[in-house]
Write a structure and sequence with these properties.
Tetracycline Repressor, domain 2, 2 domains, 15 helices
Amino acid sequence: MTREARFVLKDLIALTKPRLLRLNVFAALAGFLVASKWDIDFTLLVWTIIGSTLTIASATVINNYWDRELDLKMERTKDRALPTGRIQPGTVLAYGILLGIAGHAVLFLLVDPLAGWLGLLGWFVYIVIYTMWLKRSSTWSTSIGGISGAMPPVIGYCAVTHEVDAGAWILFALLFLWQPAHFWSLAIRRVEEYRAAGFPLLPVVKGIKRTKLQMIPYVLLLLPAGILFYTYGYVGIYFLIISVAGGLVWLVHTLRGTKVQDTEKWAKINFLISVNYLMVIFLVMIFDTVRS
């Protein structure tokens, strides 16, 4: 492979937002394993991961295509392949569409039609509702856009169960509630960048104090979501203890945010707590799944 080809490949991978992609694929894996109760159909698992990965990658690539002009205005995004002109917009759009066709084909034909429809719903919400509409017009973009971010574990779960039951709804709730406080912690730290780029995020429009207050109910509601997952018999006592303990740690730190003076430091720690909270509860969820 030539040096130029390696750079192009690197840019094509970067367009899929690998960190976000890995997190979402891991969530899909967790949903699949919880539903499987360790009676794993490995062929179905492989196709579920492939289909989910391609579908999510398609959404992030098209998001990059649509945001290319706004990305020029932000320090952390101005060096991406599209703003710098390393790859042409038409090429990126075609790349995103092809990934989407492949991903949805795998989910519909090789996994389960329900998983396919859930993938399509998440893809549509992320691209059309979030990226094209709300991200440029409303402070509700983060909350409503969370629907798409909550789909991966549900896709993995329903690939096994073939139905949307209580377990699917609770998994959806966990990811949906986690996202706003997680993202707003980052947005608070970069509020001036988002303001300059013209994104009407909550801390930009309503201020940092209002954002801190609005984070509280989302983190608080994670506690009953975790308790319900145990109550309905999907996970064991270790998940209950760790999810509640982790949720309380995050909640206490979020509440402290209303009084701290060093908002930058607080937001950074809150962001790190949110990342570790999600990683830990999903790992515990997988290994403390109640077997059949």
